[in-house]
Design a protein that fits this description.
Elements (H helix, E strand, L loop, with lengths): L6 H7 L13 H17 L4 E6 L6 H7 L10 E8 L5 H17 L13 H8 L5 E9 L8 H10 L11 E3 L14 H8 L10 E6 L2 E6 L12 H20 L3 E4 L11 E8 L1
Parallel strand pairs: 4-5
Antiparallel strand pairs: 1-2, 2-3, 5-6, 6-8, 7-8
Helix pairs in contact: 2-4, 4-8, 7-8
Length: 278
């Protein structure tokens, strides 16, 4: 993927935006973002697709009518993520959608992951779905309002949106001792970009075990959390994998994702994938 700016800087600067200024996307921004989404749709290897829905109402009443329950205000456009009900792959979907969100961020466009806080029926009506498709995730796309709502400020504080777990709670050696960032200079930035990643309700479910130059990715699940028919926390792991991958690519690292037979760990973590250095 080609970014104008360093992906490390993009990840560091991107935050979820829930209050927009009501302006439609500039034609140049829309064309670039739409072209990128079309490119993604051609290359995607799972039964999924993405599309921009534009020229929607932006008033408080129209936002409520559209069905974001007041979580989003002033957004004129949305990127809709669409998947097959029977063959949905939340891991790869999260990976691909985060690529799109980072591309939008690089263009100066704000976003906000929405999984459970929007009316799927409302968005299904305006998205023209094929048979057996559904919408697991959407994001508004637009330009932030200079003045945040009290609601948005309160919500960010409630979920601790600006806080991230420390290294010793996320990254480990194969004996499950905490991984010291000084022991992995080649991978330190990639792991830090995982740590800074967004996740549903800021649960930060990713756990990574290092075994030499192989990194095993796990989910530490929040029991009972999620939405019917779609694995939000596996989606979060897709975001983490995307950050790890893009950062290492930018730094010249080479590796591939594999599903390995890993030894069991003395935790209730769920193994997902491993990144193996070439």
């Amino acid at each position: 993927m080609k970014f104008k700016n360093s992906v490390i800087d993009i990840i560091k600067t991107r935050i979820s935006t829930r209050t927009y200024n009501g302006r439609a996307l500039e034609n140049e921004d829309f064309e670039k973002l739409n072209a990128y989404i079309n490119e993604v749709n051609k290359e995607i290897k799972i039964k999924a697709r993405f599309k921009i829905i534009s020229n929607l109402g932006t008033s408080k009443e129209e936002s409520k009518k559209l069905g974001t329950y007041g979580f989003i205000q002033g957004a004129n456009s949305y990127i809709i993520g669409i998947m097959d009900k029977d063959f949905n792959d939340a891991l790869k979907f999260g990976y691909v959608f985060e690529n799109i969100i980072l591309y939008a961020t690089d263009q100066g466009i704000q976003t906000c992951w929405l999984g459970g806080t929007f009316s799927k029926s409302d968005f299904e009506k305006i998205s023209v779905l094929n048979e057996n498709e559904f919408i697991p995730i959407i994001t508004p796309v637009g330009y932030k309002s200079e003045k945040k709502r009290v609601f948005e400020t309160t919500m960010r504080k409630t979920i601790g949106a600006d806080k991230r777990k420390p290294w010793n709670e996320l990254f480990f050696n194969k004996d499950i001792d905490p991984l010291d960032e000084n022991d992995v200079p080649k991978f330190r930035l990639a792991l830090e970009m995982v740590r800074l990643g967004p996740s549903a309700s800021n649960k930060q479910p990713w756990r990574i075990i290092r075994d030499e130059n192989t990194f095993h990715f796990y989910i530490s699940r929040t029991k009972g959390y999620g939405i019917a028919g779609y694995d939000l926390q596996k989606n979060d792991l897709g975001i983490a994998m995307c950050h790890f991958d893009l950062t290492l690519n930018e730094l010249g690292g080479k590796g591939s994702w594999n599903k390995l037979k890993v030894a069991g760990v003395k935790t209730d973590w769920e193994y997902v994938r491993s990144w193996v250095e070439d």
